[in-house]
Structures are given as C-alpha cells and as structure tokens.
Amino acid sequence: MRHAKVEYQGRVRTVTIGPDDLPISDDGAVLDVTALRWLPASGGTLFGVALNYRSLLEARLPEFHQPPYQKPPEKPVLFIKTPNTRNAHQGTVARPQGERLQPGPALGVVIGRRASRISEQDALDYVRGYTVVNEFSLPEDSYYRPAIKAKCRDGFCALGPWWVDRDDIANPHDLTLTLTVNGVEKQRGSTADLIRPIPRLIAELSEFMTLNEGDVLITGTPPGRVDVSEGDQVDTTIESIGTLRNLIVTDHGGEAKQ
Amino acid sequence: MKSARIQYHGDTLAVAVNDDGHPLLADGTILDPEQVTWLPPATGTMFALGLNYADHAAELSFKAAPKEPLVFVKAANAYTGHNGRSWRPDNVEYMHYECELVAVIGKTARNVPRADALDFVAGYTLCNDYAIRDYLENYYRPNLRVKNRDSTTPVGPWIVDRDDVPDPNDLRLRTYINGELRQEGTTADMIFDVAFLIEYLSGFMTLSPGDMIATGTPKGMADVQPGDVVDVEIEGIGRLRNHMVSESDFFRNTEE
C-alpha cells in the first residue's frame, strides 16, 4: 500500500493512495488533487549517504588515493540534510544566485521504529517503507569538509509523493532510478549498484546513532548529476515507487525574516 | 533569567532556574537540582564549528586558520543533558572533550546582517562536543561517526537569556576531569564570533528557533576514560557535568 501526507482543506492528513494515484482519506473519500498540497513524506532526521554507488566511487578512486583523502573511505560517508531542506512533491526549489544547482535522485528508506545497534539480519524489520528522494546539492568538488553550504539550503531535499510499504517492494536492491528534466531523461541508475545495501547501512549507522521512527536514509545518488535552471521541471522516478516532481525557480536571495 | 527543560516525576517541563541553579516549578516550588533529570535545553539542529580558535587549530597541526567557517551538523540523537552519561567506545585510543559556548536561536533567521544578528539569539548555553580521534576519516571531516554519536554531545544545563550575557566574546572557558582543571581559554580568542556565524549561516539557509551554534573550543585536549566526571564551564553561563561510561555499560543499561 502507498501512503502520503497532504494538507487538504486546512488540515494535515495521512492518506492512502489508490489506483490512478489518487489520494483517499480515512473515510474513503477521494481527495481532489488540484486542491491539496503534498507534504514531505517523512518528518524525521534525514541521513544522507554519499559515494554509495559503485560506479561513482570507482570513477573517483584515483583522486581518493591523493591528499587530502589519502585513502578511499572505510566507513559510510554520511551527511545530514537539516530540517529546513525538507520539500515535497510539486515543491519549488530555488537555484541560489550565481551557483550551479544539481538534483540527486535517491531511494529513501523510511524507518518504522527505533533502531539502535541492529544486525544486518534484523535490519529490514525496522523499515516502514520506501520513498523517492531528490537530494539537491551544489556540485561537490571535494568530499573533504562537511558540505552544508552545498547541501543544507532551504528546500534542498524533496521526499515523496508517498511512501510504499516495505513488503510491497520485493527487492529494493534492483530498482531503476531515472531523472528527467522537462521530460528528457538526463540520469539513470539502479539500486543494484549500491555499495552498501540497506541492511548494511542500517547496521553500520545504528551502531553509533539511534534511528527513530520517521527518520529517512537517503541511500545515495548514481553518477551523472546534471545542472538545472529556472523554469525546469525535474522528475525523479523510482521503479515501483513513484515519480517526484519539482520545479526550479529563481532565488530572490531569501526574505529577511523577523 | 535562566531556563531549562527537565524531567520531574515523569513529566517533561520547561522551567525557570534561579540564581543558585535550582529549577522552579510554575507554582514557585524550588527543586533540588540533583533530584531532577536535566534535558538538553534545546533540541534543534546544532551547527558546530571546527577549528574556531587559533590556538586549537595550531594544536591540531593546521598551518593557517581557516578563511571560511568549518561547520558540521548534529541532530538530536547526539544530545544529552546535564549530569547525563556519554560513552567511550571500546578499543579506541583517544577520546577528548571540547568545551564550547553555544548560542541558541530565538527566532527565524534568514539573511541577517551581522549588526542585527544578536537580535536572533534567545540566549546561551554550553556543550561538550566530544570527539573520537580514531574515527576521523578524511571524508566530510569531521564526520558523523566522530560528531553525531548517540548521547555524546552534552548540552546544558540551561539557557541564559541573551541580555544577561553582555559580552559573549569575553568569557572564560574551563574543562575539569574529576575536578582537575585541564583546559582553559577565553571566547575572546574565537576566530568567527556568534554574530558573524549567524550572518554566515543565514546567508544561505534559514535558522529556526531552537537551533544552536556551537562555537568551537580552545586548545587543551586530553583523553577521557570510563568513570571520569567531565565538567565544562563557561563564566556567566554555567557548569555542565557529564559522566563517562564504557560502551558496554552504556548499552547494557539502555536495553529495553
């Protein structure tokens, strides 16, 4: 089954998604999709994993034997997408003035219950489901320092439109991801290329960080990030899960808020 | 004024704290600070500074002070309150404390100029930004395995109102292990101060109430071991106590 969070008639609701991708409320009513706002598919901490696609890591290996890295990463290369980055299906993403903006299609794993020190064998018991993530970033020339200026801008992590129950995805490690810009395919990958599959990520992360209900593991972006600009419609599709749509807009520098 | 979050008789309460460090209930009842569970006084994102004191940067063999702030991010899983426990992983060589002044954001901040920045600060607290040197890899350094570990960033005990800290750039910092002074410095030696950091961060992202900016630590690191009582103290703010335990003890006692 598929589930989503939406705002409809001034209320936040959790809905199920029926055939034809229409949201259905608790009482069985089909909601008017033109009158609702999609909300981020999850509200917990967003943990990102960089360099988790084998082909991406391999392409950079020569560089990773040089300073400042010295050697390839031994543990998962992790980052946090701060709460201000949360965005939703049909949400707008502002390209910061003078910067290059790049989408990052990724499979999101939604945690279903508190997970501390979980073995790989048990890890999937702690997963609620899967969602589509577009992890926007400025280009990363370097992985040496924390990348908050590249990754933590407002609206830089879209999640949705919905999440799919874990048991409805027979093999999360064989899903095709595609990114299209204005309908033209620009990037493609498969979760079969993940260096660390989901159970291993949960085991390695929960060894030192408790994962809580609603947290999301962003399992990585395949190689080939592209630049997008104002007016572009960016669709991230993951086979068997769905298509997350975002629109790129002009950055007005952000309002000074009081 | 000081404010804190505590657990008392099973309830989570936002309370005022008097000048003697005693929490006050809404009806004026004065509580024994040893009889409450102190929670982290804020739970938003923590933006933590690396290498923000020139002497500490030199201690870590960095040739030049950074030109741009080195900022990393912590989430709520990392925080623990005053009198809480942090754990030293088994089989590591070196785990050290870091006494830091923390500014707590009081209102939504975006594109705030330096001159107005302190208007966006609710107050100040302190943290102990423990790090484990063994786990430093050169990717997103310092990485989450060093800096976002469960219960390994004590924060508290309370927030002191901004207006009660007239000069956050002139405060003594001290760290004690088992009562013995091990680290001493002054916030006057910070490279990037709170006002600068608010201007810098809000220049590319929105800061929200409850977010925290941990401003880095001066030189004077030392290893900590299970059994150690580690106090970080900042003049005019407070003294934050932490109990170091072993990995096996920490997780034995939190098994459900």
Topology of this protein?
The complex is a heterodimer of chains A (258) and B (256).
Chain A: E1 2-8, E2 11-17, E3 23-24, E4 36-38, E5 46-50, H1 54-64, E6 77-81, E7 86-87, E8 92-95, E9 105-111, E10 127-135, H2 148-151, E11 157-165, E12 176-181, E13 184-190, H3 198-206, E14 216-218, E15 233-238, E16 242-250
Parallel strand pairs in A: 5-14, 7-11, 8-16
Antiparallel strand pairs in A: 1-2, 1-4, 1-11, 2-3, 5-6, 9-10, 9-14, 10-11, 12-13, 12-15, 15-16
Chain B: E1 2-8, E2 11-17, E3 23-24, E4 37-39, E5 46-50, H1 54-59, E6 70-74, E7 79-80, E8 84-88, E9 95-96, E10 99-105, E11 121-128, E12 131-132, H2 144-147, E13 153-161, E14 172-177, E15 180-186, H3 194-202, E16 212-214, E17 229-234, E18 238-246, H4 247-254
Protein name (chain B): Fumarylacetoacetate hydrolase family protein
Keywords (chain B): Hydrolase, Metal-binding
InterPro entries (chain B): Fumarylacetoacetase-like_C, Fumarylacetoacetase_C_sf, HPA_isomer/decarb_C
Structure at a glance:
By secondary structure, chain A is mainly β. Chain A is built from three helices and 16 strands.
The N- and C-terminal alpha carbons of chain B lie at a distance of: 38 Å
The CATH homologous superfamily name of the largest domain in chain A equals Fumarylacetoacetase-like, C-terminal domain
| Biggest sheet features of chain B | 11 strands, mixed
Shape of chain B: globular
Proportion of beta-strand residues of chain B: 35-45%
Low-confidence stretches of chain B are: none
Low-confidence stretches of chain A: none
Strands of chain A, total number: 16
Element order of chain B: H for helix, E for strand: EEEEEHEEEEEEEHEEEHEEEH
Q: What shape does the CA trace of chain A take?
A: globular
- At CATH level 3, the topology of the largest domain in chain A is Fumarylacetoacetate hydrolase, domain 2
Largest sheet of chain A: 11 strands, mixed
Kindly name the structural category of chain A.
Answer: mainly beta
Which CATH-level-2 architecture of the largest domain in chain A?
Alpha-Beta Complex
Of all chain pairs, the largest interface belongs to: A-B, 40 and 39 residues
| Count of discrete structural domains of chain A | 2
Task: Indicate the radius of gyration of chain B in whole angstroms.
Answer: 17 Å
Indicate how many domains the architecture of chain B comprises.
2
